[in-house]
Structure formats: structure tokens, C-alpha cells
Design a protein that fits this description.
71% helix, dUTPase, 0% strand, globular, 7 helices, mainly alpha
Amino acid sequence: MDFNKMLSVTRQSQFPAMLPAKQHDLDEKYSNLVVNVNLSLANLFRMIQDNAEKDLLLDAYCKCMRDFFAIANFKEWAYIMLMSDEDLNAIGEKWKSESLAMVYLSIQQQINSCYFKRQPQSLVHAWHMFLKLGLIDLEFDINEIENRFYQLYEE
């Protein structure tokens, strides 16, 4: 996957809508990006629970991926989202998760740890679990994810 290009596509897209607030400073923008990734992840897992069609799951997965990239771009952490082909292959060799509920809670915990403890490494852990979810548990192909991402977000 060309993560650099995907991060760039995300940078070019419109900043997502924000929750109502008295003031829209940088902290509020970051908070909203974290809320967005949490909500898109929750939506993805709701769709998994409802046995949604694969195409709908792929769209939801790409939406969540875009939200991960938006956080990384905003915080200037794009470099931590980059992965080599070897890194992706290592994820591809892992086993299916025994509990998707635990996967969801673990990803959420890492995202929230990134926000509340200001630890970018927690975003990396969440990102790796998210990639494993897509490649192993949901059985998406790397090219399938990348192509759909560009269809949805490249202008």
C-alpha cells in the first residue's frame, strides 16, 4: 500500500465537521479528529455485527482508515503510519482474532491512550491492530483496500 499517497489524499480532503463548541482552537480540532476515528471504528464494528455486505464493510473500513490518517496528518505524525511491504507481510501472517469485541476494545483503548496520555506510539499500536483487522479478520486484500480508498477520497 502506498501510505504516503493515501496520507496525501487525506491531507487534500476537507476537514471533517466538528462537534459544537464555544471555541474551535487546535485542541478542539484534534479532539474532534479523535472522536471521528472512534465513531467510524464503532460504525465499522456495528456493520460487522450486522453481517453487512463486504463492499459496505470495505467502505466503512476505508472511512476509518481516512480518519486515522487525518489524526496523523494533523499531529504531524504521518511518518509513524508508514509501513514497508515487509511490515505488511508480517501482519498478513498473523492469525484471525478469537474475539472481535476484544479487538474493538483494544483499538479504542489505544486511540484514547494516544489522546489522553499524548502518546503517539499508542496510535501506532491502534493502527497495526486496525490493519490486522482488515487484512486478516475481514479478509480484505491490500490492493482492494487501496483501490477503494482512492475511489472514495481521491478527487
